[in-house]
Design a protein that fits this description.
Chain lengths: 80, 114
């Protein structure tokens, strides 16, 4: 079964994250991803950056569903 | 469904939802929730059941650079999946983007989604 730790390793390998938290039950996962890379990108562009990093795992369907919130460090620090 | 067919359907219809199952009988929680958000906006949308043809998901992955289902298109523009559509709805951005596509007589009845 896919673990949250494995997903974190995959994301960190392709994306410079200042904060990363993945939660899930082995089938459906949620990720909070904070990266300066997202600065100036729209919501869809941010997810596309993460999707590109995880592409091969989506293709093999090892990774089926990943819900994500993508924030810049400034947005993350400013949240209420 | 191949890329040409995907391109045709998203450019010829104002709102398209690629989903698992149909808007009446969704077969995945994320697909069902996304259909619910669009219904809450009172827009007519075309639903494409990706489970009906095995090649739709890989073709869509290449066409949209988007690996997961559901996917929403508005006027040919990739909006995103369940998370983005829901976030935009809650922020009022989805309704702003849909604009005139929302049924005017029922627009006032839109309830916030839990």
């Amino acid at each position: 079964m896919l673990t949250t730790e494995q997903i974190e390793v995959w994301i960190r390998a392709g994306l410079d994250c200042t904060h990363l938290a993945v939660d899930g039950d082995g089938r459906h996962f949620e990720a909070l991803i904070v990266s300066p890379v997202f600065d100036g990108l729209s919501r869809v562009q941010r997810q596309q950056r993460v999707n590109a990093v995880l592409r091969e795992h989506f293709e093999t369907e090892l990774l089926h569903a990943l819900s994500m919130r993508c924030m810049t460090p400034e947005e993350f620090n400013a949240r209420g | 469904m191949n890329k040409e067919q995907i391109h045709k359907i998203v450019t010829e219809n104002p709102v398209v939802l690629f989903m698992k199952g149909s808007k009446t009988f969704p077969q995945c929680g994320f697909s069902g929730r996304t259909a619910q958000v669009l219904k809450a906006c009172n827009v007519d949308f075309v639903d494409v059941n990706v489970l009906a043809e095995a090649d739709t998901v890989p073709e869509l992955r290449d066409y949209a650079d988007w690996p997961t289902i559901p996917v929403v298109y508005i006027r040919g523009e990739l909006i995103g999946g369940c998370d983005i559509t829901t976030e935009m709805y809650q922020a009022g951005e989805l309704q702003a983007k849909l604009g005139d596509l929302m049924n005017p007589t029922r627009r006032a009845l839109i309830e916030p989604l839990v």
